[in-house]
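Structure ticket #2291
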Amino acid sequence: MMLDAARALEPLDLRLARDALLDTFPMAIYFGDSSAVSATEVARVALSCKLPSGIEPRSVDLVLDAIAELLANGYGTAAPRLREALDAVQPDAVIHAVPQQITQACWIALPLSDDDALRTLAGTCIATSREQGAFQALPEALDYLALRELRIGTLNVADVLFTEVLELQGV
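Resolution: structure written out below.
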C-alpha cells in the first residue's frame, strides 16, 4: 500500500512521493518474504522517481537515492552516492531534528563502515527521540549504536544497548 501511495503522490507532489518511498524501504526490508513488494522493487521505483533538473536535492533526497542505488545495484555502484549522502546529512540540522530521518541516515553510515558517523547519528537520534518523546525511532537507533559497538569490540556496551532495545519492545 505504501508503494502504491508513493506512486499516486508522484504526479501531485514529487517530494512527498520521495519521502513516502524512503518510508517504504523499512517495511519491505522488515517484512521480507511476507511482503508482496521487495526492497529491490521499491528501490527501482525510487530510482525512477527523480527530481527534475534544476531542483536542488535535500539531504533526505540524497539518502533516498543512495539507499535505492545500494538495494537495486549493490555496494560497488552505490558507494559514491552513499558517501555523498552521508556528507550531506552530517551537518544538516533539519534531519537532526527528525528522529526517523536520522535513523535513515544511519542506513548510509552502516554500509560505509563509518563508525564515527554512525555513533554520531545514532547518538543524535537517541537524544532527539528521548527529548521529543518520539520513541518509534529509538529502538532502531539503539540497534545501530549497538551494532557499532559490536564492530569495534565493545561487547559490554553493545549488550546494554541491545538489552534496552528488548525492554523497549517488551521482550
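Closing remark: The two ends are 29 Å apart (CA to CA).
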